[in-house]
């Protein structure tokens, strides 16, 4: 399946719709989830067009991959989440119920997050 340039995160990256930016670097953007499931619910996305984890890890440059994970780590450090704990999730494909077909990691924290799968 080809990348859908009209997915909601592609529109955010083109500044066609607003988002609440948390942080960014040359290759990755972090913004608050519009429907937060925890006190901290941040989405981290690569700035280039990757639908899912497999595409990203197969096709992205090392700089893109490093920038992506460094942005996540920067947010974790800034919020001191390594002390209280946090969860990172990436839904990929139909069995994971991925809604938006642009790779995104959910960073969830700020309360006990319960079991991973209910
Ligand atoms: P997933 O089910 O893993 O694809 O998650 C998609 C996430 O994107 C959900 O948690 C939504 O709440 C979130 N979302 C959808 N539209 C927006 C938006 N415009 N701004 C921020 N988050 C959004």
Write the layout of secondary structure elements.
Elements: H1 8-13, E1 21-24, E2 28-32, E3 40-46, H2 53-59, H3 62-78, H4 81-84, E4 87-89, E5 105-109
Antiparallel strand pairs: 1-2, 2-3, 3-5, 4-5
Bound molecules: adenosine monophosphate (AMP).
Adenosine monophosphate is lined by residues 8, 19, 33-35, 43, 91, 97-100.
Distance between the termini: 30 Å
Class by SSE composition: alpha+beta
* Series of H and E elements: HEEEHHHEE
- What is the name of the CATH superfamily? HIT-like
The amount of helix comes to 25-40%
| Biggest sheet architecture | 5 strands, antiparallel
The CATH topology is: HIT family, subunit A
Number of helices: 4
How many extended strands?
A: 5
- Give the name of the CATH architecture: 2-Layer Sandwich
> How many structural domains in the coordinates?
1
Bound molecules: adenosine monophosphate
Could you name the CATH class? Alpha Beta
- The whole-angstrom Rg is 14 Å
Broad shape: globular
Low-confidence stretches: none
Which properties best describe this structure?
118 residues, alpha+beta, 5 strands, 20% strand, binds adenosine monophosphate
Summarize the structure in words.
The chain is of the alpha+beta class. It contains 4 helices and 5 strands. It has one domain: 2-Layer Sandwich (HIT family, subunit A). It is 29% helix and 20% strand. Strands 1-2-3-5-4 form a 5-stranded antiparallel beta sheet, covered by helices on one side. Strand 2 and strand 3 form a beta hairpin. The longest helix is centred in the middle third of the chain and has 17 residues. The termini are far apart.
């Amino acid at each position: 399946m080809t990348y859908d340039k009209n997915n909601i995160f592609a529109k955010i990256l083109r500044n066609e719709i607003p988002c609440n930016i948390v942080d960014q670097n040359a290759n990755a953007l972090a913004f608050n989830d519009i429907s937060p499931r925890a006190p901290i619910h941040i989405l981290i996305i690569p700035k280039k067009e990757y639908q899912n984890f497999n595409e990203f890890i197969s096709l992205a440059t090392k700089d893109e991959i490093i920038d992506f994970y460094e942005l996540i780590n920067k947010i974790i450090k800034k919020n001191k989440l390594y002390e209280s704990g946090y969860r990172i999730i990436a839904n990929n494909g139909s069995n994971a119920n991925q809604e938006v077909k642009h790779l995104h990691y959910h960073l969830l924290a700020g309360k006990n997050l319960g079991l991973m799968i209910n």
